[in-house]
Structures are given as structure tokens and as C-alpha cells.
Amino acid sequence: MSGASLLALENLSLSIGDMEILRQVDFAIRQGEVMGLVGESGSGKSMTALAIMKLLPHAARASGRILFDGSNLLDASERQMCAVRGDDISMVFQEPMTALNPVKTIGEQVAEGIRWHTGANRADAEDRARAMLDRVGLPESKFPLARYPHELSGGQRQRVVIAIACALKPRLLIADEPTTALDVVLQKQVLDLLRDLVDESRMGLLLISHDLAVVTDMADHVTVMRNGQVMEQGETARTLKEQRHPYTRQLAEASTHVPARAAPPEQAAANATPLLSVENVVRDYPARRTSLLYRPAPFRAVDDVSFSMQPRHSVALVGRSGCGKSTLARMILALDSPTHGAIRLKGQHLEGLNQAALRPFRRDMQVVFQDPYGSFNPRHKVERLVAEPLHLLDEQPTRARRREQVAAALADVGLPADSMDRYAHEFSGGQRQRISIARAMITRPKLIVADEPVSALDVSIRAQILDLFAELNARFDLAYLFITHDLTVARAITDEVMVMHDGRIVERGKTGDVLDNPQTDAARELVDAAPDLDRAIRRRLARI
User: Fewer Cβ close by (within 10 Å): the C or N end of the chain?
Assistant: First the structure.
């Protein structure tokens, strides 16, 4: 098995204390081949990658063999692994902002590995770093080496991480969910870049992802994992088309899952007051000053946006990163003020109100964030986390009444009442998102703004959360504004879609109409770049 393989895992098992993490994992990657590693959260995908890199916790115990070019990495010393990491084997992590050093420039960070492994002087290392950044689409004319990570967008930061990983042309690249937080257009660009780098230098690529459509487009072979074991593996398109193992079939069904939803509410009467009304909203920010005597024109993040939402309506706001979606959401939530225009909730103006006057409106609108763990205080138990919005009530509940309300909110999202006595880190990603939704629901709002609420979840958990959103929509007459770059989510859970581009709403209509027959270039670009499992399988089978 390992003779012609660049990397071969043979009976790899891993335990931490008494807990088995991996059990007899076997797969191989040849030079110039892309292997997709898929499975639910907790299936062992990332731990497999960390085992290959020997970046495991101190308490971890691994057995079996990890053969890289015939040598067993499990027998390698830390000094030997330091020589291998970044040179022969590199890794691209899921979250670029945490993978990059915030106090070092991007040029320093790309050049660092080059200097460490090759002994090159600073000038030569910077020249090579400059060439690598240019190769990943960050030319020095637009992105000087002196820039810091916080001055770049998410997609640009991910390109820097790829430049660091590929600076020395490794023989094996491990990419752990490299496009999770990116919009579909950036995702396609980053994946095309990875494929080009594989083809250019004939390196092996281990692509870890929960997106089966992405894996089908990219990978030559796929390995399906569950609970630390390999369930199925084989040529990607045939494996995902035939779905011989029940778990593979379960993943494929979850990736295209559409919740059962009640029929959308009928069109409101012309004189009915909308739940939310946004009228000609503009948001300008001061531009960076480059001269003492010249004040540049302000940057317009949101440009003359108007729309309205009725009760129970579910509307998706889609668009590329940086198009103004989150800025618009902050203004709707009264966390920022428009430069011009008006925002009304149930007919009442929100702009210009002080915090005391906003309290009753905040009860009627809540937010669900992309990363629930990042929005929780890790020192607080779930009871306090979920009860946070209760401070918006005019009359504060007693402790007993508060526990009753928290228990009811947890029950609404399918969690037991005893969850309130635990900490957020004791829950899985899907359970934490349920807690986040319970926190949003506790004041019984009329509008929920959901900012990429399922982008970080695997397909099975995503299907469960979408079902939950659909159920709450029907039970409590909730209206949703979904901010998402995932058109599959928009199609599954919303009645209407608004496409935003360069701060403007360029297209709006019924979800199926817009996504099946986009009329603007911006919408067509999103639809064309969006991963689609069935389409990807057909495309790869045609190539074969």
C-alpha cells in the first residue's frame, strides 16, 4: 500500500487518557493526488491531521504507522519533525486570523519559514516571500509586505496562510477546512489556487472539509470518517454517487437537506405596517487620510438600501465578503447609525434613539452569531448566558422565574433543562448554536438576524439547526433575516433573497426565482461559484 505512496497511514490509533479518538485509520496519498477527508464534527478528521504533523496534546498516545516517503513519523524526534514541518509537510488552518501573528507583517511571516529552513538572509527571504505572495494573488503593488493581518480581508488572510504553507513547495499540504469562513466566490478562488499549486509542484493534498460538493470538485479520492474510524473510501465521484455505506448516504442527504416549512405568509395588504422597514439607508466611513492638506472622500459601505419585511417572512441577504451585509445588519440592530435614511421596526423609527428608548425594540429583535462560542463568556454557565437578554424587560424576574424562562427557552431548541448548570465548553458546536438560539428566543422576539448561523457546522448538524429555525418560524411567527454566503442555506430556509453588491441591493425576488434564473452579474457570479453536490458529481464523472 505504501510503496508508491507519498503518505500512508497504517492502523493509526490514537487515545487521550481513556478516550479512544482514532481507531485503525488507513489511507494513502500519492504524489500529485488530492485526498478528501470528510465526516461530522468529532469524527477525528482534525486529530488525524494533527497526528500526521505530530502536534498532539501531551497526553495523547498514538500507535500504528504514519509513513511519509517510507519513514515512520511516529518514531521521529521533535527536532526531526521541526525540520519536516513547513518544508516537506505544511498545514493550512481553518481560521487564518488565529493562525497568523497579529504583531508581525505578512512579509515577515512568509519569510520566517524560508529563513529558518534554508538559512537565507533577510533580503533573499523577502524576495521569495514577495514572489510567493504574488503567486497567491497578493502582488506587492496592491499588498505591500509591510501590511498586517488585520488590514486584510478574510480571503486575503487565507491567501497569506497558503503562501506561508507553500513558500518552500512542500511535498504534502494539509488543508483543514480552508474555506469555511469565505464567501462562495472567494472559496472558488482559494480552491482553484490550491488545485493549481498541486498541479504545478505535484504535491499531495489532504483536504479536510464537511462540504461534500467542495470535496467532489477537488479530490481524486475520498475517505469518510465517523467516530474515529474509516467508514468508506474510494474514488470521489463514484463513492459519493453510489453511497454504499449508510453513513455516506446520511452525509449526502444532510448536505442537500431542505427543512419542511409552512407555506410563506400571504402578501400583506398595501396599507399594512411592515415589521421592518429600511428606507434609503446610507452608511459612510471616513477614508484613510494620506495628506495633511487633502481629505479623501468617505468610503460608502451601504449605498441607498431600501426593503421591507413582513411578520413570519424569512429573507436571505447574500453577497460577497465586504459588500456591506454585516454593516447593514448592525444598523438594523441599532448597533450603528445610518449616515442617511430611516430604519423602522413596527413603524417606529430606530435611528437617533438613546439606549433607554431602544430597550423595548431590542426585546423584539435579537441576533444569532456565526461563532456561538466566541459570543459566550466562557466563565459563565448556560443559565446566565441564555438569560442575558432578560435585562431588557421592564420588570426583572425573580431567580426562580428566570430559571423557568431559561428552561423553557432551552426546551424550545431541544436541550434539556439541566444544560443550564453547565459551561459552554462542555457542549458540541451544534449544541452551542442551539444555546445561542435559545438566548435569542428568550424575550420572544419578532425578528431574528442570523449572521452566518450554520457556516461553521458540519452538514448533519447544519440540517438539524435549519430544521430548528423552520420549526421556530412556524411556532412563534418569527421573521428571519439570514445573512449568508451559502446559497444552499438560502434556498433551504428563506422565502426571498436579496443580492447585495458594493453596498447596494442589486437584485431581489423569490428565492427559487433569483437562484435559478439570476438577472444581474453579481447574482450570476454567486450562483456559478456556489458548490453543488449533484452538479459536482456529474462534472467529475464526465471527466473520468
Answer: C
In Å, the largest CA–CA distance within the chain is 75
Four-residue CA torsion sign, 341, 513, 312, 329: negative
Written as one letter, the residue type at 423 is: Y
In one-letter notation, the amino acid at residue 534 is D
> Is residue 321 domain-shared with residue 222, that is, in the same domain?
no
The Cα-based distances of 445 to 62, 353, 393 in angstroms read 49, 19, 12
* Cα separations in angstroms, 41 against 14, 37, 228, 428, 460: 17, 12, 11, 8, 9
Residues 219 and 341 in one domain: no
On whether the CB atoms of residues 486 and 450 are closer than 8 A, the answer is no
Residue 1 has pLDDT above 60, yes or no: no
Q: Is the pLDDT of residue 373 over 80?
A: no
Complete DSSP assignment for 425-481:
GGS-HHHHHHHHHHHHHTT--SEEEEESTTTTS-HHHHHHHHHHHHHHHHHHT-EEE
- Through-space distance between the first and last CA atoms of the chain, rounded to whole angstroms: 23
Total domain count, the chain:
3
The pTM of this model reads: 0.82
Q: Give tens-digit pLDDT for 391-441.
A: 988 888 999 999 999 999 999 998 999 999 999 888 877 788 899 999 999
Cα dihedral 405, 409, 410, 413 in deg (nearest 10): 170
* Domain end residue (candidates: 134, 169, 204): 169
Task: State whether the Cα torsion 535-35-458-333 is positive or negative.
Answer: negative
CA distance linking residue 85 with residue 106, whole number of Å: 19
135 domain-assigned: yes
Tens of pLDDT, residue by residue over 303-358, are 999 999 999 899 999 998 778 898 999 999 999 999 999 999 999 999 888 888 99
Listed residue (2, 6, 94, 96) closest to 45, CA to CA: 94
Of 130, 151, 169, the residue at which a domain comes to its end is: 169
Residue ranges with strand state E in 247-309: 276-285, 299-309
Tell me the residue range of the domain where 40 lies.
Answer: 1-60+172-256
How far apart are the C-alpha atoms of 506 and 489, rounded to whole Å? 20
Given a contact cutoff of 8 angstroms between Cβ atoms, the answer to whether 83 and 68 are in contact is: no
CB 129 within 8 A of CB 144: no
3-state secondary structure of 385: helix
Sequence-ordered alpha helix ranges (H) in 7-99? 45-53, 78-84, 96-99
Nearest to 327 by CA among 292, 299, 355: 299
* 309 and 330 within one domain: yes
Rounded distance between C-alpha atoms, residue 160 and residue 266, angstroms: 48
Determine contact, residues 217/531, Cβ cutoff 8 Å: yes
CATH number at residue 37: 3.40.50.300
Amino acid at 256: T
> What integer pLDDT is reported at residue 2 of this predicted model?
41
Q: Same domain for 5 and 153?
A: no
Residue 324: CB partners within 8 Å, gap ≥ 6?
283, 301, 302, 303, 305, 500, 502, 503, 504
CA angle 517, 523, 527 (to 5 degrees): 70
Find cell 441564555 and name the residue: 386
